Task: structure prediction
Amino acid sequence: MIRDRAYILDALIVRIMKSRKRILHSALCSEVMSLSRFSVSAQDIKQRVEGLIQRDFMSRDTEDVTVYHYIA
Result:
């Protein structure tokens, strides 16, 4: 069940990033929390974002680490 939620969060974050291309961490967290069908903590989101960055789905801005960019 936990693994399923991780995949759901990954898909949700990627969907948001595809539509926004660039987003602040706080805006991403609030959007994920509002769109998720289950309760999500900021720590859960942070873990999923780190995984997506490692897998090259998104990256951090070089000047402002609170900004993420979608990698097409």
Q: What stands out?
A: The chain has three helices and three strands.
